[in-house]
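tl;dr need the bound structure. longer version: we got a ligand (adenosine-5'-triphosphate) that a collaborator sent over and nobodys looked at where it sits. i said id run it. heres the input, straight from their email, havent touched it
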Amino acid sequence: MAFADGAMQPNVLVVDDELEIGRFFEAFLAEEKGCRVTVANTGRDAREELQRQAFDLALLDLKLPDANGIELLREIKQVSPRCQVIIMTGFSTVKSAVEAVKLGACDYVNKPFDELEELEETLDHALAAAGRGGGRRNEIVQLAANSNIVLGVDSPMQPILEVARRIANKDITVLLSGATGTGKECVARFIHSCSRRSEKPFITVNCGAFTETLLASQLFGHEKGAFTGAAGAHRGIFELADGGTLFLDEIGEASPANQVKLLRVLETREFRRVGGELPIRVDVRVISATNVDLMEAVEKGAFRKDLFYRLDVVSLSLPPLRDRTADIEALMRHFVDKSLPPREKGSVQFSPGARAALLGYHWPGNVRELANVIAGMMALREGPQLETAVLPGKIAGGEHGRGTGDDPWQGSSPEQGLEALSHRWGEIFFQRLLSGKGGGGLGGVVETLKQLENRVAIDLIQRTLERTGGDREAAAELLRVKPRILRYYLRERGR
Ligand SMILES: Nc1ncnc2c1ncn2[C@@H]1O[C@H](COP(=O)(O)OP(=O)(O)OP(=O)(O)O)[C@@H](O)[C@H]1O
Ligand SMILES: [Mg+2]
């Protein structure tokens, strides 16, 4: 390890107007961690020290009498970008602490320091990172890959996931916004898997999918005889998610009554089963997602303001895929390889024309649409190169495919993709057959269709497995087939 100016000892700056805090860190960091420590009690002192020496770590109070902590953070990052900064904050300013993390602080700690172990862990992490000369390059890319999230070089998703990772262990609520298919659920799972809750359940609730009466019993459970048909007691989602993460998807669609119920449990962390007497306490981390502008919904009176502020402690907004060119390229490759058996990965390439068309398309359905398009292209390909001929018309047509008129995909939502896709397959086969390029005539087409059937089945199975978190029995039930059928298809792929 080497620290600022090649020293063997980390140089730490503590900025806090509470003298006691300064004294505590001075002793603790020097004696326990072998650091050199400088304490500044005002913003002015801190600025002077920053001119005088280079620091590896700064512990920064956000509320100083003569300076704005966020401003100071910016200055530290400017004069020494490699300096790790830990924000110290009272509970009331968690939101500004999160802002600081977005601006490059590596972590924040709550004052007073009740959890000394946690504080020490945070300090150890920051000192280790300082010794490496900042964060590990590509560390976040690797972590994301462990959660099946693919990132291109310098992807705008990278800083978002960096923040997601830093707040993963904080238990604060996170609101993810972004258009359909941008990866909100992926990011929610990523936060869960980076947190100490990762061994506990991650449970998704689609807030729009419940009727008002169903929601209470789904979320909170009910006691035997609570209502007609409640033959036995039933644990609700909040109980099932205890210790883990609850993902409230499409929160903007929760009905007004359901919004009240959610607010109550988020405020008190307590609820009663329907028909139950005893309050139940749970330890659940809540992440919610929306593809509508919730702030706008609040202004229109369609969404409760108090619930919005409860949910929006950390807000992460995912950019549309068209603004992530490097991601498009990486994801194209990823989805191609994903559909190939292990030995054949890397063997299929894009023709320059197809590549350019895919990179230039505006991707209204974002990553989900891209995955569907590549699956379709792979099913239609006739060799190791993916040509423009197998592009859907909306993409091959250029200029966002507008004006091609006869494109069967036009106007289809990503959810309808499969149906539209099969329609298009039909057209393409028909044209090929008539133009004499159909391989072995009708027999050849039927043979190809059989292969297609396999691919579609496998694709559906995989998507269902994603939805059930890998639970095969649940997937088989959803698909209304015997688990044996699932095994048959998956084994065929060499799994
Ligand atoms: N960066 C990524 N790398 C790999 N796969 C991704 C990435 N982002 C999204 N996906 C995949 O794209 C699909 C859509 O992602 P996800 O379900 O997370 O989107 P969403 O924002 O929740 O969409 P919606 O608003 O429609 O629910 C999923 O199959 C997901 O695995
Ligand atoms: Mg989703």
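gonna send this back to them w/ a short note. The longest strand covers residues 84-89.
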